Amino acid sequence: MKIRAVKIKEISKRILQGDFSFLSLFKTTNKDQSLHPAELAKVLATLPNDAALKAYGQLPQPIKVSVFAYLDIQQQKFLVKKMPAALASTVLNSLSSDDRLIFLSEFKGVELSHFIELLDEKNKQDAHNMLGYPDNSVARLINTDFATIKKDMTIAEAMEHLRQFHKDTEAANVIYVIDDEGRLIDDIPVRRFVLNDPNKKIEEILDGYCDALNIKDKTETAIDKFKEYDRIVLPVVNDENILLGVITIDDVLDVAEQKDTEDIQKFGGMESLDYPYVKTPIFSLIKKRAGWLIILFLSEMLTTTAMGHFSDELSKAVVLAIFIPLVISSGGNSGSQAATLIIRALALKELTLQRWWYVMRRELFSGFVLGTILGAIGFIRILLWQKLHIFDYGTDWLLLSFTIFLSLIGIIMWGTLSGSMIPIILQKFKLDPATSSAPFVATLVDVTGLIIYFSIAAVLLKGTLLK
């Protein structure tokens, strides 16, 4: 039987029936039959909490720790609250420092104090130190299990030192050279140990370049540096260049995914979720969505106000109402496109706030060209429908065609301008550009688009349709 999706379903079914024979999969040497802790975490995620707790309790002690790190935070919370204090202490102390800190960050007050008390003195001190930093700082991702050597050692001496004093961790792929005060000098990938003469001095194989993160840096800075330097691990230092720990690429990828998810959810016109969609309680999900929906609904009321203001024009030329959805939706769509492009460009650091005039010029020109294209299509549509006798727009159909043509140019130019400038303005005031979501831009353009549409109609159709 293969592992992956089919096997995960089969194991889940067995556990629910009280069959824990899956434990043998941790002892097999058969690659096709072996079970990775991440895969077992997926199994536990499919189970009801009580069944997951029972299955977790059947695991060997080392596997408990490995699997725990891969569980989602809600299941981690449930398991650690239900397991005996001694087991909880063992699991939490055995986690890597970054995984432990991520777990502790989910608690506050008495609960946080309770779990910190389960830690040994070193981990307890580390937790107190790191939890004092903001949630979005690299300190919350730091791993203190790193390997260090001195530059006056030979490669052979350094390798023996590492074997004696350091354990095998994900951070051990890069070794750090420090001075007697613990200041960072350089980093050395493990491959350089393997490919050089064991009798060489460490200082002979240093390249003199080591980029590092500061403990006060934001997680966005870490993401940017990992992308820029294509690193799998980066050291973290304080203002005195003392090496405090490292951050690994897997943690940065998790943060980047979480940040992108939050931005996408905000761009959809809602608050970002605290947990995955399938793990979010229904009333919490409603609460996250209701706020923005109410704001957008109240904003859309301005559309009815604008239409009421032009009620005389509508009563005189009912044909104008036929094209309201056409011109308004085009403006909203163009605004959403512009907002998406600019928000992503800002996120990727392709744009800076100082280039706002460059963006405005481009979007105004883009809006004019796009508006002309759609306006021409609208003009041709009225012309064809009139000439083919599909619909009679009256004797002033040509003026109506020009009204639609010019309205689409104006509304789409306004839509692209609004969609591009709002994210820049929000970032200027230190707000999240993602909050200028597509629904927000579309609502704004709906209201202002009606004013543009009826203003152009009032000028072109005065004395004809609008007598």
Form type? elongated
Beta percentage is 5-15%
Uncertain runs are none
Largest sheet: 3 strands, mixed
Q: What gap, in angstroms, lies between the N and C termini?
A: 80 Å
- Measured as a percent range, the helix fraction is 55-70%
- Report the count of strand segments: 6
Instruction: Round the mean pLDDT to the nearest integer and report it.
Output: 84
Structural class from helices and strands? mainly alpha
**How much is the radius of gyration in Å?**
31 Å
Compute the number of helices. 20
Series of secondary-structure elements, N-terminal to C-terminal: HHHHHHHHHEHEEHEHEEHHHHHHHH
> Reading side by side through the largest sheet, how are the strands ordered?
1-2-3
List the helices and strands and how they pair.
Elements: H1 4-16, H2 37-45, H3 49-57, H4 61-68, H5 73-82, H6 85-94, H7 97-104, H8 109-116, H9 121-130, E1 148-149, H10 155-165, E2 174-178, E3 184-189, H11 190-194, E4 213-214, H12 219-229, E5 233-237, E6 243-248, H13 249-267, H14 282-309, H15 311-316, H16 319-322, H17 324-347, H18 356-387, H19 397-428, H20 438-460
Parallel strand pairs: 1-2, 4-5
Antiparallel strand pairs: 2-3, 5-6
Helix pairs in contact: 1-2, 2-4, 3-5, 7-9, 12-13, 14-20, 17-19, 17-20, 18-19, 19-20
Describe this structure in words.
This protein is mainly alpha-helical and 467 residues long. It has helices spanning 4-16, 37-45, 49-57, 61-68, 73-82, 85-94, 97-104, 109-116, 121-130, 155-165, 190-194, 219-229, 249-267, 282-309, 311-316, 319-322, 324-347, 356-387, 397-428, 438-460; strands spanning 148-149, 174-178, 184-189, 213-214, 233-237, 243-248. The strands form 2 sheets. It has a 3-stranded mixed sheet. The chain has a 3-stranded mixed sheet with strand order 4-5-6. Strand 2 and strand 3 form a beta hairpin. Helix 1 (4-16) packs across helix 2 (37-45), helix 7 (97-104) packs across helix 9 and helix 17 (324-347) crosses helix 20 (438-460).
